[in-house]
């Protein structure tokens, strides 16, 4: 998702190739990372992006706070958290306490990395994350004790496992949207309270007319699988673009 304004926008932040936020993920090993610790930190890492990946299991919660959109050839679902290259829900590194925090953000700095076969994964950690103490001090919670994973690693393993399963289910859902040709390109033009204009483009939404024309058999199958509800969550969430406009309007022009 990209945005254009009538005033020169700030330069987009440079990002390493690979998953959003992750700079140097490494597979966790008790022998190599015995002294590593995790230090409590804020959501500063998510402050300079306008869209965050989403999985279908959280569509219901996300739709109450953010527009859910699709992008790319695989129709990856994202939540729009800003109009320009700024997350309007992060202030001084703190996520808005009244808003749902996407699972992708809560998972960081942990992630599953593929190992060997396609269905084999290992737990990894972004070694460049500010939360990671690589043994320089006693600050933070240890990742391993006596050669065994601590509770924080066990919890991360479960969370990442659940997220990966949700991601696989999400890909099946978006593949069905593509197969049924339900997605259309969409651009929006918004006017802020001070008169500034912005154009947001580079995303897709479900075409309401095509969705309503789905064959009865498909409707029944999607109802039983929960996919109908997902489309309705997506469509209702698009009204949240007005909330993004209000948040952007509340910022100074140079922001």
TrEMBL record:
Pfam families: SapC (PF07277)
Highest taxon in the source lineage: Bacteria
InterPro entries (alphabetical): SapC
The protein, known as: SapC family protein
């Amino acid at each position: 998702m990209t945005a254009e304004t009538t005033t020169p926008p700030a330069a987009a932040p440079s990002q390493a190739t690979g998953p959003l936020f992750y700079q140097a993920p490494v597979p966790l090993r008790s022998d190599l990372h015995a002294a590593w610790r995790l230090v409590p930190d804020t959501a500063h890492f998510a402050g300079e992006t306008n869209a965050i990946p989403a999985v279908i299991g959280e569509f219901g919660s996300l739709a109450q706070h953010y527009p859910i959109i699709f992008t790319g050839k695989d129709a990856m679902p994202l939540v729009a958290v800003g109009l320009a290259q700024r997350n309007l829900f992060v202030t001084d590194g703190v996520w808005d306490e009244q808003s749902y925090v996407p699972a992708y953000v809560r998972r960081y700095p942990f992630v599953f990395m593929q190992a060997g076969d396609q269905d084999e994964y290992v737990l990894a950690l972004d070694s460049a994350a500010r939360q990671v103490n690589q043994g320089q001090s006693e600050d933070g919670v240890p990742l391993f004790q006596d050669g065994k994973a601590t509770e924080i690693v066990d919890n991360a393993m479960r969370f990442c496992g659940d997220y990966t399963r949700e991601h696989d289910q999400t890909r099946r859902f978006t593949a069905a949207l593509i197969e049924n040709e339900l997605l259309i390109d969409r651009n929006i033009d918004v006017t802020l309270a001070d008169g500034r204009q912005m154009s947001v483009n580079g995303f897709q939404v479900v075409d309401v007319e095509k969705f309503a024309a789905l064959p009865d058999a498909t409707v029944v199958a999607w109802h039983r699988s929960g996919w109908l509800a997902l489309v309705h969550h997506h469509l209702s969430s698009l009204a949240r673009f007005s909330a993004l406009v209000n948040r952007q309007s509340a910022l100074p022009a140079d922001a």
